[in-house]
Design a protein that fits this description.
elongated, Putative membrane protein, transmembrane helix, DUF350, 0% strand, 137 residues
Length: 137
């Protein structure tokens, strides 16, 4: 029978956090795919740099939020809960970016490979992930 020390071994804990965060990242990316008007992976396959930048920023942002959540919570359930709360805030930030730019449609510009908009989207996702992460209790 496995003792409790096995489950608290740093290698086992790291593998556990890694597995859970990868699963959460996949779920998050599916939800982002629903929120955006373009198909992330189809556009990336076509070479759309703006979509790659925006998607990369989302991935980095989500991972950064979960990094803070792992650092601050000893319970897996709390870590996942705070991580997803941070993800919801990232979605809100993306929608706010769209709302605050009435002169153009962010999703349409990214779909058209407007790299400037893709880069700003990347920066917003990554930058706000630090703010969200720092505020996780």
């Amino acid at each position: 029978m496995l003792g409790t020390s096995f489950w608290h071994h740093p290698l086992v804990e790291t593998a556990g956090y890694f597995s859970v965060v990868v699963l959460c990242l996949v779920v998050s990316m599916v939800l982002f795919e629903i929120v955006t008007k373009y198909k992330n992976w189809d556009e990336i396959k076509k070479g759309n740099i703006a979509v790659a930048l925006a998607t990369g920023g989302k991935i980095l942002g989500i991972c950064n939020i979960f990094r803070y959540s792992i650092e601050r919570h000893s319970s897996l359930l709390e870590m996942v809960g705070w991580g997803f709360f941070g993800f919801v805030l990232l979605i809100f930030a993306y929608l706010l970016f769209e709302f605050l730019t009435p002169r153009f449609n962010v999703d349409e510009e990214i779909a058209k490979d407007n790299r400037s908009v893709g880069f700003i989207s990347f920066t917003i996702s990554l930058g706000l992930s630090f703010v969200i992460g720092a505020s996780i209790l």
